[in-house]
Specification:
The structure is a homodimer of 231-residue chains. In chain A, strands 4-3-5-6-11-7-8-9-10 form a nine-stranded mixed sheet. The longest helix of chain A has 21 residues. The first copy, chain A, has 231 residues and is of the alpha+beta class. The first copy, chain A, is built from three helices and eleven strands. The relative contact order of chain A is 0.12. Chain A has two domains: 67 residues, Winged helix-like DNA-binding domain superfamily/Winged helix DNA-binding domain (Arc Repressor Mutant, subunit A, Orthogonal Bundle), CATH 1.10.10; 135 residues, Umud Fragment, subunit A (Ribbon). The radius of gyration of chain A is 26 Å and the shape is elongated. In chain A, α2 packs across α3. Chains A and B meet through β3, β4 and β11 of A and β3, β4 and β11 of B. β3 of chain A pairs antiparallel with β3 of chain B, so a sheet runs across the interface. The structure holds a DNA duplex (30 and 30 nucleotides).
DNA sequence: AATATATCAGAACAATTGTTCACAGTCAAG
DNA sequence: CTTGACTGTGAACAATTGTTCTGATATATT
């Protein structure tokens, strides 16, 4: 049975906290000597000793003979029970999307790559890459802000940011942005191809679907990948 | 006017791409010699020369005499016009929230810190810290998943993740989760204190508000900070 | 033609940094 | 009491790494 000195646990915790803080401010890891200074240990060997333990415990990861190569693998939570998980924070890959424009019901959706000149929008939307997993190529994604109450039946509110994926066809069940040539408007609906006709189902279950018999009336502009409402 | 050799632009681009790739796989920056090897430059001085240029151009940032301290400030886009902004990706602070439970209209909202035993939920929601700016202390935030169609009038759908901030009072205009003692249900509404009565306004503008005269009937559980719908 | 910048190598240097070894005191368990 | 893990220092070493200097050629601008 591995005994535990009173220093050890405290040191482990202090080191882990230091690593997180340091990486958050500097974007890279501290050197062994910097760690030693911070936790009040004068020999690099003792720091190395603790780092080896933390590695073995699976908290960190290092590359041999590479300076400042400590990676934080998980948050330190000592011996506490694992069933109350707190908010963790870490550095992850974040995609930053410029908000290209607004969805207006009476206009087709502007799509990147078209000859429209986009001005640099001040606003952008940040989304962790992890959250977009399984949504295909990232370069196909773009973000629009919803203007007005025209999308209420899609459960989308004024000011919401909608992440789209460029597409000109859709599978059943996808929420899509479609341009209805007849009505001259853009709308967000769930898409169902029922063979003889296309059914566009509002997200709000109390509302009735739209049926369209002529496929040419429906132009799919993109699939809705994510909706973000920041209050 | 600064002239530009044909190599320069290509090198800058190559270096920036390498930095991004390297950081993505290793979580730390390459050394100058590693960069040199990769772009086919045998002297460290030339690499340093390019890195100084990139620093001056505002693409990267370094700390003097610190190994592997290159920070990527923005994505390299060369001389392209600035009005078509592409998706950028970088490493940022991300908060990872465990999804604590589900909102069910017929039950009060579970709040972290209560004596409920939370099991480790597999699902978590990642949100860049930047997106949560101005929402108060991060430790007061928690996430619930919406179950069923009970929140449709709040423009919130089955499966949506809702970020709450713990609160027991609200300002006018806040979207809040309230427990209505009378009806024995939780609901999400916009909150307005009109002096003699409390008005709870559905997000859907076509729906009618609820008026409550007895403040004791209304228990505020939390404010809605963000809604995320991942399709 | 003269000048400035871009391009490039090589070396030397100093600083930072990871690794390892020797040594030693404390303390709990077998 | 011996063993082994914990706690700790100090030094020495080697490797990595950033910095700087010399020197050289090329190329476009003035």
């Amino acid at each position: 049975m591995a005994r535990k000195g009173k220093m050890m646990e405290e040191r482990h915790q202090k080191i882990m906290k230091y690593l997180v803080d340091y990486q958050l401010t500097n974007q890279y890891s501290p050197s062994i000597r910097e760690i030693g200074d911070h936790i009040g240990v004068k020999s690099t060997s003792l720091v190395d000793y603790y780092l080896r333990q933390l590695t073995e415990m699976g908290y960190i990861d290092r590359d041999e003979r590479v300076s400042r190569s400590i990676r934080i693998l998980r948050e330190y939570n000592g011996d506490r029970q694992g069933n109350v998980r707190s908010i963790q924070y870490s550095r992850q890959d974040v995609l930053s999307f410029p908000v290209l424009g607004r969805i207006v019901a009476s206009e087709p959706i502007p799509v990147p790559g078209s000859d429209l000149a986009y001005f640099d929008s001040e606003s952008s939307v940040e989304i962790p890459r992890k959250m977009l997993a399984g949504h295909g190529k990232e370069s196909d994604l773009f973000v629009l802000e919803v203007s007005g109450d025209s999308m209420v039946d899609a459960m989308i509110n004024d000011g919401d940011k909608v992440v789209f994926r460029q597409a000109n066809k859709a599978s059943n069940g996808d929420m899509v942005a479609v341009w209805l040539a007849n009505n001259e408007e853009t709308t967000l609906k769930y898409f169902y191809n029922e063979g003889s006709r296309i059914r566009l189902q509002p997200a709000n279950p109390t509302m009735q679907p739209i049926y369209i018999n002529d496929p040419k009336q429906v132009r799919i502009m993109g699939k809705v990948v994510m909706v973000i409402r920041n209050l």
